[in-house]
Amino acid sequence: MTAPNNIASKKALSSGPIGVFDSGVGGVSVLKHIRTLLPHEHLLYVADSRYAPYGNKSVAEIQARCFAIADFLIAQGAKVLVVACNTATAAAIDALREKYSLPIIGMEPAVKPAAEASKNGIIGILATVGTLQSAQFAALLESHGRNVEVVTQACPGLVECIERGEVASQTTRELLVKFCAPLLAEGVDTVVLGCTHYPFVRALISEVLGPKVVLVDTGAAVAKQLKTRLAEVGLLSAVNQAGQVRFWTNSAAADAPAVMASLWGQAAEVSTF
Ligand code: DGL
Asked: Taking a C-beta distance cutoff of 8 angstroms, is the pair 120, 55 a contact?
């Protein structure tokens, strides 16, 4: 009796949704990779935009927000959580894994791939203050940044522009010119987009840095790791139809659903929480 019941409950669990969250809309850049790699999975996305940016918040504040969102996603039936935020991963992944028993995937800036891709051995990292000051980032540099020169640059104000949907505005461009200048001065040939918001201004960053600088981010790698983990624990959906995608935001901005849909690139069902 036990075996068939177990199989039945595993099957019910595997058809549950994947819960993805970020401090705001940035994690949608990761969600796109997840959708492409796992088109049959149901996806839930939470943008904690009322509390964005996380980059200048304390570890305790970020952990409290992550717990609140994890509780929400688990109440919606999430079978796995993806922390689609480098800052939240650095601040809270250990605490999340200690508190919850479901699989939790996190992310960190792509220092290793960038160090491998760089031809001149000079790489730049664009990320939030929180990520750059974290112990996790120091450990990452220690493991993978030893043989290259690493130029780090925090980007205060950039997440706020992207939250407003300003992916090509003059304000965004001016900020990027300012943040990219030290990287160009050091002669970087590879730059890590170490915050999930930044892929939305990839075109602008590329324009400012010039066509020879290679940009690296971790969205595709996170989706791949998620798929591997789901397969390992027997939770890949066996369903053959396209999964549903639902979005939540706690942003006070009236145009938040429109910004979400525009970054997602198609119509989006956005609720508030
Ligand atoms: N998108 C986030 C990250 O990957 C954080 C942005 C923020 O809220 O500061 O780091």
From this structure: no
What are the backbone angles phi and psi of residue 21, rounded to the nearest 5°? -145, 165
Q: Report, as an integer, the average pLDDT of 232-256.
A: 96
107 with 129: CB under 8 angstroms?
A: no
Q: Find all residues with CB under 8 Å of 134, minimum gap 6, and list them.
A: 90, 91
| Strand 122-127 relative to strand 80-83, pairing | unpaired
Is 85 within 8 Å of 54 (Cβ atoms)? yes
Alpha-carbon gap, residue 63 to 65, rounded angstroms? 5
Residue 195 CA to ligand 1 centre (angstroms): 5
Question: Which residues neighbour 271 within 8 Å (Cβ) at sequence distance 6 or greater?
Answer: 246, 247, 248, 249
This model's pTM is above 0.85: yes
pLDDT (tens digit, 9 = 90+) per residue, 121-152? 999 999 999 999 999 999 999 999 999 999 99
Q: What is the CATH number of domain 2-107+220-272?
A: 3.40.50.1860
Query: Which pLDDT score is estimated for 79?
Result: 98
- In ligand 1, the atom with minimum distance to the C-alpha of 57 is 9
66 given a catalytic annotation: no
Q: What is the CATH number of domain 111-217?
A: 3.40.50.1860
* Ligand 1, pocket residues at CB < 6 Å: 22-24, 26, 52-55, 85-87, 128, 131, 159, 195-197
Alpha-carbon distance values, 227 to 34, 82, 145, 192, 211 (Å): 8, 11, 27, 23, 32
